[in-house]
Amino acid sequence: MTQYQAFRVELKDRVAHVAIHRPEKINAMNAAFWDEIVDIFRWVDETDEARVVVLSGDGQHFSAGIDLQLLAQAATQLGDDVGRNADRLRRQILKLQASFNAVDECCKPVIAAIQGYCLGGAIDLIAACDMRYCTLDAQFSIKEIDMGMAADVGTLQRLPRIIGDGMMRELAYTGRMVDGREAQAIGLVNRTYADRGELTDAVQALASEIAAKSPIAIRGTKQMIRYMRDHRVDDGLEYIATWNAAMLQSADLKVAMAAHMSKQKPDFAD
Amino acid sequence: MTQYQAFRVELKDRVAHVAIHRPEKINAMNAAFWDEIVDIFRWVDETDEARVVVLSGDGQHFSAGIDLQLLAQAATQLGDDVGRNADRLRRQILKLQASFNAVDECCKPVIAAIQGYCLGGAIDLIAACDMRYCTLDAQFSIKEIDMGMAADVGTLQRLPRIIGDGMMRELAYTGRMVDGREAQAIGLVNRTYADRGELTDAVQALASEIAAKSPIAIRGTKQMIRYMRDHRVDDGLEYIATWNAAMLQSADLKVAMAAHMSKQKPDFAD
Amino acid sequence: MTQYQAFRVELKDRVAHVAIHRPEKINAMNAAFWDEIVDIFRWVDETDEARVVVLSGDGQHFSAGIDLQLLAQAATQLGDDVGRNADRLRRQILKLQASFNAVDECCKPVIAAIQGYCLGGAIDLIAACDMRYCTLDAQFSIKEIDMGMAADVGTLQRLPRIIGDGMMRELAYTGRMVDGREAQAIGLVNRTYADRGELTDAVQALASEIAAKSPIAIRGTKQMIRYMRDHRVDDGLEYIATWNAAMLQSADLKVAMAAHMSKQKPDFAD
Amino acid sequence: MTQYQAFRVELKDRVAHVAIHRPEKINAMNAAFWDEIVDIFRWVDETDEARVVVLSGDGQHFSAGIDLQLLAQAATQLGDDVGRNADRLRRQILKLQASFNAVDECCKPVIAAIQGYCLGGAIDLIAACDMRYCTLDAQFSIKEIDMGMAADVGTLQRLPRIIGDGMMRELAYTGRMVDGREAQAIGLVNRTYADRGELTDAVQALASEIAAKSPIAIRGTKQMIRYMRDHRVDDGLEYIATWNAAMLQSADLKVAMAAHMSKQKPDFAD
Amino acid sequence: MTQYQAFRVELKDRVAHVAIHRPEKINAMNAAFWDEIVDIFRWVDETDEARVVVLSGDGQHFSAGIDLQLLAQAATQLGDDVGRNADRLRRQILKLQASFNAVDECCKPVIAAIQGYCLGGAIDLIAACDMRYCTLDAQFSIKEIDMGMAADVGTLQRLPRIIGDGMMRELAYTGRMVDGREAQAIGLVNRTYADRGELTDAVQALASEIAAKSPIAIRGTKQMIRYMRDHRVDDGLEYIATWNAAMLQSADLKVAMAAHMSKQKPDFAD
Amino acid sequence: MTQYQAFRVELKDRVAHVAIHRPEKINAMNAAFWDEIVDIFRWVDETDEARVVVLSGDGQHFSAGIDLQLLAQAATQLGDDVGRNADRLRRQILKLQASFNAVDECCKPVIAAIQGYCLGGAIDLIAACDMRYCTLDAQFSIKEIDMGMAADVGTLQRLPRIIGDGMMRELAYTGRMVDGREAQAIGLVNRTYADRGELTDAVQALASEIAAKSPIAIRGTKQMIRYMRDHRVDDGLEYIATWNAAMLQSADLKVAMAAHMSKQKPDFAD
């Protein structure tokens, strides 16, 4: 397994555990973070054995968001011409976005397990995951507003599809803290747990359950749900028909049917 | 009234009652089901007297989804060439989808009343209805994942617009059971009732209430809400302006206004 | 400050207070209302000092919706040719829609504070606001259905993005009353308050909080959330990258950073 | 082969010849025409042996467009209520459109061979074909404008993608005649022939050539070009990747490769 | 008739003649131009008697594009903060765009008659017209590239739909001159005339011809062609069905039919 | 300058010359080709000095398209499960597409210079370029149809926007050869030259001309034209307004203005 500076990565029983590992910096997202996350999710995509990803943060907090040093450094690289600065900034933003697109576009489900702070860029990150679970004392905030900027790596794009439009605006304009209970009430997380131990167990159990399903079926399902975030119902129906035209010829249906008949657990190839 | 093999259909007091009627097979969707549902909803569309549809399942359960014999039969029809098989499968899927599109595109509101099992294809079906109501002991599951396939007749396309994105993915990846109470909490159904009697009464009352409204107004309202599922706000505004350019010239406005003035119930033509 | 016939407008501490002021007519929306609201929101857009808008209704009720006299008058202007009538009606509807588009497109956040009746056109209006807050005894109803028509100034276009699809249809087909508590449960309002005093205080506090943020950041945030209502995630990401290419060169980031370092409140230019 | 009232249909050497056959009425499109064309193209879709369609008009002219008696009859069916009339007319138009959608959506290429008049509804029809060829003396006109109406069965929707936008508007506003030479210059037809004999030979040769190609490849190609008329480049790329994921597993590639190696004509299964 | 500073406007025989009238400045587009064009086209929209617009430039040239003084002035209004400057510039650009949107969205056809120079902003303008005709010695150039900027009032948005994509890019990157003959070859104009006299006569004849058609039919036709520039074929078909649901109830169809029967010219009401 | 196996790359006078360099294999696209083209265009994107790209093929022909050995090899990697094969093929196609997306998305204009054969994949490639120029004896063919497959790396997606829809279908269904003259007539190339020497000179002159323009202006222009291929006019107008909000603050406008005043050639920074 490759070693990373900002992450701790492990593949166990078909579940890839990806943990942000800069606990002494509240898992702030530094330069290494933004590069490595792309490599990690490419590896997940290409590794058939990895069927599900659990994304977490080591230490007391999930993540405090982008490392302010990174922002400060970007500012120092600007020159005199506003137009050329704009061109450079635009590319840098697109590059940062690409890091979280890698999470969003990963063909395996990504489950976020969140405790403590989940601020700024960390919201952008979990909005790119498939599902979110947290402890009661988790603290969410769209912090970018207090940095004098509109969030630009995904929160404003992906979160409105996850939580209600009215609450979305309140949170984005004020940057106020949301705890675990409210996060569940507004649909930001699927479920809340009393403490980190319970959270870890529950997420592990969920990951294992999904890892036991047909990889062909899971992949198609994720692809379609992602597709529907941005497409029409009729386009989605046509797309799944074309997709399943090939996938229904897979052995996984027979494996599933045989298991169903014999009332045993199916065992799907990677 | 036409007789159907898989359905029991009745038109009473402007409400069309469409019940899946294969209780001994847990209302599994067989070949007759997929054909007849298209005819039934075409009849609803063309019958001015039918102003609202109540869709239900006879017996203890709403429906166990697609009949496995139908799937097994489809598998036997495949030949040697993967490409030609894909072409055949693609058409079959599109044909099945068309059955539920007939429900979705019906110009009258369709209310689903659900008790007991509502599994696999049955979720695809109720996602194509306007509104859903159920008993507390209803059991919902996106069962397709356990057949080794991605759902392909509408669940993955329509449900994300109805329930939250995060919970959508959890349910689609795991296929776990959701009961009536949770179904209401996540927006899958509008309301839950203690038992089947209460459910039937409530849905009947709702259907009657809607049946008493202006058919012109109901039709326009449904058309617009459906349109907005897939279109931009500005396109929707332009569309309703064009639509109402004709419909505001209808007598129904005068009937409504007169009733409003005289504080009596309006009586709209079919 | 300009004087208006249908509104009371005030700018205080960077918050524009816009109150519908026809309390003796339950704030029904007359001809003056539809014209003046465009002027008011243009003024808000062009007045840098106005950073947030609070929209309310004077008297016991928020608003009973469109003035029926206006509708009656429109009906009298129709001639003999159905086609030419349609052309005229279409333009009138587009013109009414433009009044609420002015609210929706306003580049400053608009907060609606609602008590008592909020009926018909008033729902169209609050659906064009950023966020909604109400008293417990507020009464919401998509009243248009009882006038024999499909709502055509925004409710059917904007509300489905705010509340759940299933409940949206129930409310639009039946026109039934929704009180404050249910409004919060379905996401129609963000929060409910015991009485008008509490509502006013809470909304004022929220408005002040937002008014203290960077205007550049607030504007970008609103622009992006609006954009995402109708666009794809990838388009949204590209758009914010282009937007922030200029905006990250603003002084507001430095002001925010300095305040963050010195743990003081930032003071942003208008 | 089924007998039709408005058509003459023949399947020969894998080419389906579909000729409008009301020469004494300048092939005007009567009630039978609109119904039968749907049946014919469904038959083409389901008949593997039919690989290409040649659409033509028997007699001196291709077609004079919709039969005026049909229009007159529709007018007599209208009642007193403008709204209910609108509802009826809207459905009738959608039904007529469906007849030409059957041509557009046919999964085999459709080649139009045109001589003499091609007026009004006939333009709507050929705009739904894949390619158009004509004699020098062909006469095209968007005649609807002179009936006091905007064309509503496809010309205004499909033709702008085929000919230039500027010329499109000139022809639609004036209804002026376009002869074969100009039709080729503006891209309305691919090629012009001196007389009907040459036209028939050339179209037959083209049809035979296409009929000899891999049906899998032709079908995919048509599907993609149709898809691109309405979709983004990135969506199109993703769609063909999903499509070819199945189709590249077809035997047709091996047949083609073997023929290429042996420098012989490939012989593809239907 | 209102008097304008930058235009000469006349309504004669149902044709509105709108001429840019700053011949001594090569019809450069000054502040008055951008404001007045909005008023003029609003007047056209609201004046039933005006059925077609002919847009021309007085003097030797059509127009040299935006007045450089206007640009220079805009530059002087910028302050120190890049972000606030960006906000101001963005609004100014949107405001200029609105001037040409008024042309594009005008519900009557707009015919451009072009002689001599047609440079920079003048290309943006004619791209917003329905059809373009010119003299042989007309000179077109996408001049903005030589001002160090990307054209931002419509050329890059509307022209690719009118001329071929490959040539579009060549012209936009190089700003090279295109004469009348080439303009016709690439579809930029519909036809070219030997001199100004012939051009004027031909455009006048065309305008008169269109002015004699049913205003209801012309309006619907323009609306649909504009709609198709940005929408899918299926959306367009649904839209025209809804549109014609009202418009086919107009008297114009009967007027047209009667004229057709009696072989006389129809006379449609405004 | 990096050395490549399948390309010869040179940067001279601000023009990047990228030549496919496998003349002994008719520049067939092998594995190295598909990888290296991504690197080359990333380098172009990141190299400010490279302002324009000229893409050509060394030897007698531009390119014969994909190397058949590559296709044959892909076929050998397939396993027993149709579903897993489909997943693998889908990824391979997406990866090949990414190679030409790199050309399409390059922020500098790419000019294709074509002589001799331009077959199959070579059409996909030139469709991703900005503009195309060729010799009279160039030979174009959408060859994929004769390999038993639908083209899947861009031809069917991008070419319909460049040439007419009717001719597009004829060429895609038949795979017939198109020479230089016809290529120009249908808009596939902008201009045709007598021989390779003239072609090279003309393309070099064009490249130099574009390289002398403001890089800020060229980049924005390309971005906008690409954007419009897939977006609505109103979205495009909003996007350029946001883009130019930053870019009009660039020094390039002043440089251009000063040069204009002094009637000298402007000299823009990279």
UniProtKB/TrEMBL annotation, chains A, B, C, D, E, F:
The keyword Ribosomal protein does not apply. GO terms for cellular component: cytoplasm. GO terms for biological process: fatty acid metabolic process. Its main location: other. InterPro entries: ClpP/crotonase-like_dom_sf, Ech1-like, Enoyl-CoA_hydra/iso, Enoyl-CoA_hydra_C. The lineage of its organism: Bacteria, Pseudomonadati, Pseudomonadota, Gammaproteobacteria, Pseudomonadales. One of its GO terms (molecular function) is isomerase activity. It is found in: Peroxisome. This is Crotonase/enoyl-CoA hydratase family protein. Belongs to the enoyl-CoA hydratase/isomerase family. Pathway: Lipid metabolism; fatty acid beta-oxidation. Signal peptide: none annotated. It holds the Pfam family ECH_1. Keywords: Acetylation, Fatty acid metabolism, Isomerase, Lipid metabolism, Peroxisome.
